């Protein structure tokens, strides 16, 4: 199957869904989920904070704008204490323009 022509019957096709909610904790839960995933990938606390501040990713940008950097840093520290640092496993490279590249997303 061509890369740019996904099969609608393929159960492995990535599908994003937007859900409206009035729950004020929804953005916090989303941020916690992102941070947990980044920690499990092996990113350092500094690298995770930088991903939120880069403004390149819509979800982390929304979380940073909604919660503020202080809360994001607290959530990062909570996850680092819970899951432990494994930062040596994943290296983040910056491009000349200041963008962040994650090797796991480049494949």
Structurally, the number of domains stands at 1
Q: Which strand order does the major sheet show?
A: 1-2
Number of strands: 2
Helix fraction?
40-55%
The SSE order reads HHHHEE
**What would you call the shape?**
globular
Structural class: mainly alpha
Radius of gyration: 16 Å
The percent range for strand residues is under 5%
Number of helices: 4
Average per-residue pLDDT, rounded, comes to 83
Query: What does the main sheet amount to?
Result: 2 strands, antiparallel
How many angstroms separate the termini? Answer: 17 Å
Provide the low-confidence segments as ranges.
none
Q: Could you explain the architecture of this structure?
A:
By secondary structure, the protein is mainly alpha-helical. The protein has one domain. Helices cover 47% and strands 4% of the residues. It contains 4 helices and 2 strands, in the order H-H-H-H-E-E. It has helices spanning 26-41, 45-53, 58-67, 69-83, and strands spanning 93-94, 100-101. It has a two-stranded antiparallel sheet. A hairpin with a 5-residue loop joins strand 1 and strand 2 (100-101). It is globular and about 40 Å long. The model has no long low-confidence stretch (mean pLDDT 83).
Provide key terms for this protein.
4 helices, two-stranded antiparallel ribbon, mainly alpha, 107 residues, 2 strands, 47% helix
Topology:
Blueprint: H1 26-41, H2 45-53, H3 58-67, H4 69-83, E1 93-94, E2 100-101
Antiparallel strand pairs: 1-2
Helix pairs in contact: 1-3, 1-4, 2-4, 3-4
